[in-house]
Design brief:
CATH topology of the largest domain: Rossmann fold
Largest sheet: 6 strands, parallel
Shape: globular
Order of helices and strands: HEHEHEHEHHHEHEHEEEEHEH
CATH class of the largest domain: Alpha Beta
Distance between the termini: 37 Å
Bound molecules: NADPH dihydro-nicotinamide-adenine-dinucleotide phosphate
Mean pLDDT: 96
Radius of gyration: 20 Å
Strand order of the largest sheet: 1-11-8-7-5-6
């Protein structure tokens, strides 16, 4: 890498700081809802089984929900719970007016059909945005609940770049939870969007054409700096644990050190996209609550 480029090192996009701002805006709005209408948004999180990572996520979601002034309902079910019991719980939460958002923590134990479970959630309370109705609403440009991680990426991009229209966006990864909804959102912003995946030919050249490069693959440091267009905005969704120098650490799908020499802006891992995901879950719960009560949606917190 040349010395000149090294001097032009991109400033990291501070997802952690931005997520704190989003949570503060949500909390402010919640305070007003309580004062003006006596309404407190509620989020129900359901965890089936004892997966350690899922337990940490669920605990953090509960803490941040309460910090935002919302009510947190937590349900922890044993791994061997029959699917019918989970569906009964979901039906009860669907019918409970104090619950505005329902999140079933994934992955579910092997004996459960995750699609059937997710599609049992009332789409209006589907704050993860995974229900097939919300997928369809997003694809057709209607008022969907938008999946939290892509929504967080979009907020960071808008904050950084303002108007995204006409930009070339490349999304590497085509999962239902990140890649595809991310691409849908960027199409809605009038970007020219390419979705790349494991069968994409000439991936390096495809990435080099991107003004906006979103990596959602799950392969540590797969995208090196010389795949990045000079000045591009790079959003690294990947969260990968690697062993380095006898220690475990988190890295993204992008090789941060080399990409930061070339990019205009880049999200670090950790501290980039990750914190935005829970912040957007709170934003979605607030949005769901406003919609349920026919109140105006919070500005700047939706897609
Ligand atoms: P999936 O495993 O569901 O999807 C990975 C995608 O990457 C697939 O579409 C796959 O292609 C593609 N892919 C795999 N290998 C290659 C390759 N060599 N070249 C190009 N594309 C490839 O992952 P997720 O979308 O669920 O997650 C992606 C990453 O984001 C993970 O690291 C995950 O931990 C992280 N993540 C982070 C979140 C956050 O809050 N920051 C939230 C959710 C996920 P194909 O379809 O052809 O197999």
């Amino acid at each position: 890498m040349s010395g000149e480029l090294a001097i032009n090192r991109a400033a990291p996009i501070d997802g952690k700081g931005f997520a704190a701002e989003v949570r503060a805006r949500v909390a402010e709005h919640v305070t007003r809802l309580k004062a003006d209408y006596g309404i407190t948004p509620g989020l129900a999180v359901v965890l089936v089984g004892e997966d350690p990572a899922s337990q940490v996520y669920v605990r953090n979601k509960g803490i941040q929900t309460r910090e935002a002034g919302m009510v947190s309902f937590e349900y922890r079910l044993p791994a061997e719970t029959p699917q019918t019991d989970l569906l009964t719980l979901i039906a009860r939460l669907n019918a409970d007016a104090s619950v505005n958002g329902i999140l079933v923590q994934l992955p579910l134990p092997g004996h459960m059909d995750a699609e059937a479970v997710i599609n049992a959630i009332d789409p209006a309370k589907d704050v993860d945005g995974f229900h097939v109705s919300n997928v369809g609403l997003l694809a057709t440009g209607q008022n969907a609940m938008v999946p939290c991680t892509p929504l967080g990426c979009l907020m960071l991009l808008r904050d950084r770049l303002g108007d995204l229209s006409g930009l070339n966006a490349v999304v590497v990864g085509r999962s239902n939870i990140v890649g595809k909804p991310m691409a849908q959102l960027l199409v809605r912003e009038s970007c020219t969007v390419t979705i790349a995946h494991s069968r994409t030919k000439e991936l390096a050249a495809v990435c080099r054409a991107a003004d906006i490069l979103v990596a959602a693959v799950g392969r540590p440091k797969m995208i090196p700096g010389d795949w990045v267009k000079p000045g591009a905005t790079v959003i690294d969704v990947g969260i990968n644990r690697i062993e380095e120098g006898g220690k475990t650490r988190l890295v993204g799908d992008v090789d941060f050190d080399s990409a930061a020499q070339v990019a205009g802006a880049i999200t670090p891992v950790p501290g980039g996209v990750g914190p935005m995901t829970i912040a957007c879950l709170l934003a979605n719960t607030l949005t769901a609550c406003c919609r349920a009560n026919n109140l105006p949606e919070p500005e700047g917190l939706t897609a």
